[in-house]
Design goal:
With about 290 residues, this protein is an alpha/beta fold. Helix content is about 50%, strand content about 15%. Strands 1, 2, 3, 4, 5, 6, 7 and 8 form an eight-stranded mixed sheet that branches. A hairpin with a 2-residue loop joins β5 and β6.
């Protein structure tokens, strides 16, 4: 029975997930596969590369660097998060991503994107960490309105959270029967229809499928929450989520808030560590 780690996105709310993951790595909790959406992909790849602390470290280090993310990059390139610096210069030169460890680790790593022309989810398993893999991760995290679609594999791709925010069903279909799911919203949260639809109609006219997908995204997301509740009752998943609303905006770069959100993740993981270990041990015993 294969175990999986399912990582929701949420921009800088993903620092909660990073805190959880660092504690799990410190206790040598390993998975057969990982699937990440948006920030779940950009931060989750560090689990497979075994780089404890890297997510918080580079976000704090480059929070005020205009080459990393911000209005200057958006106006100059069409990407709020600067593509070349953030997804190539940074991991290759400035806070080096451990490509060798990622490639030698046996866990599968999947990302979720959205086809900008159809509005449908695109799932991709990254077999080898290289510059193309970094582009898949960038595509998964390319938020509409503040990112250009990323051309890959004959498609134009945007943020996976548009079409499949919590890809548990997909991972189960890939044979991962027991999964830990890390959410970045607290229990009881339900998504409302976005108030930004006028901006989507104005700025995303070239991509009507994205406009349609965003208009019903709240229904997709809330349906996935209902599925999580069902799977939790069945005992096939362990949910990890913040106790309260995470006190940081999706693109906020306040160091104090970043460290607080990361600490919230660590605190939650340390609190749940016995449950996590029991859940993983149950899988070993069942397999044997």
């Amino acid at each position: 029975m294969r175990t999986g780690l399912v990582l929701e996105g949420g921009g800088m709310r993903g620092l909660f997930s990073a805190g959880v993951m660092d504690v799990m790595m410190e206790h040598d909790i390993r998975f057969d596969g990982i699937v990440g959406v948006s920030a779940g992909a950009t931060f989750g790849c560090n689990y497979k590369s075994h780089q404890i602390g890297r997510v918080l470290r580079y976000n704090v280090r480059f929070k005020d660097d205009p080459r990393y993310m911000g209005l200057r990059s958006l106006l100059k390139t069409g990407d709020l998060v600067a593509a070349e610096f953030s997804y190539h210069t940074l991991p290759n030169e400035l806070d080096v991503f451990d490509f060798d460890t990622f490639n030698s680790d046996k866990a599968e790593f999947h990302v979720v994107c959205t086809d900008a022309l159809t509005g449908e989810p695109v799932y991709h398993r990254i077999e080898k960490a290289n510059d193309e893999a970094l582009e898949w991760i960038r595509a998964s995290a390319s938020m509409p309105l503040v990112s250009r679609p990323v051309p890959l594999d004959g498609r134009f791709l945007l943020d996976g959270g548009i079409s499949d925010s919590i890809p548990l069903r997909y991972f189960q279909q890939q044979g991962f029967e027991r999964n830990i799911v890390i959410l970045t919203q607290p229990k009881g949260f339900y998504k409302k229809k976005t108030k930004l639809m006028p901006l989507f109609h104005l700025f995303m006219r070239r991509y009507p499928a994205i406009i349609r997908a965003m208009s019903r995204r709240h229904m997709m997301y809330n349906g996935e929450l209902a599925f999580l509740e069902e799977q939790e009752r069945l005992g096939s998943i362990l949910l990890i989520y913040p106790q309260d609303i995470v006190p940081i905006g999706r693109t906020e770069q306040d160091e104090r808030k970043m460290r607080r959100v990361y600490a919230m993740g660590r605190e939650k993981a340390e609190q749940m560590l016995p449950q996590i270990q029991t859940f993983m041990q149950t899988n070993i015993n069942t397999t044997l």
